[in-house]
Amino acid sequence: MDKRILENLRVKKAITDGYFNLLKQYQNDQISISMITKQAGVSRMAYYRNFESKNDIIQHFLEMVFEEIKSQLSEECQFWSREYGNVFLNVMKKYREQFLLLDEAGFIGMVQTMFNDANIELAGDVKFDAVERYHLYFASGATLNGTMEWFRNDCKESLEEFYRVMLDFLASNIT
Question: Which sign does the torsion angle of CA 39, 40, 42, 47 carry?
Fold first, then answer.
């Protein structure tokens, strides 16, 4: 891979990590671009070459998580299959701390939008009329709310147990 691309990815990761480290200590509106660049060890020019705002950092993080989920799914993976649930929950759990910070900072709406978009994309060729499409949104909301509550409870249940409960709920309520 081109050195410039690798450096750009490194800078984006440093900025994203720096932002989340600051979010542990400060409210979002208290975090300045200067604080982020200092925490990340990058220049303001490097910041503005990659992001226009703090929301762009969050959007980048969410896109990165979704791409990580997609990259781990096999071509044959069925939407809401055991493979899908295992990959989805393992990746989400890997970023548990960041998702809890986003929730605490009031960005759960951005996370929900990512969930909705991801579920629509991952559902693939499923044809929905206007009414049936709402099922996907209900499932997406229930999944995010359940996952966030699991995170808040320190993931006390195993991933397998939590996924079984989630599937049982969706199967009984989203038909």
Answer: negative
Distances in Å between the Cα of 41 and the Cα atoms of 4, 23, 89, 161 are 17, 16, 32, 41
What would the pLDDT profile of 147-171 be if each residue is shown by its tens digit?
A: 999 999 999 999 999 999 988 887 7
Rounded to whole angstroms, the Cα distance separating 3 from 15 reads 18
User: Rounded to two decimals, what is the model's pTM?
Assistant: 0.90
Contact 16, 61 (CB under 8 A): yes
Start-to-end Cα distance in the chain: 46
CATH node for 1-51: 1.10.10
The tens digit of pLDDT for each residue in 5-14 reads: 899 999 999 9
- Number of alpha carbons in the 13 Å side-chain half-sphere of residue 90: 13
Task: Name the nearest CA neighbour of 75 among 126, 28, 122.
Answer: 122
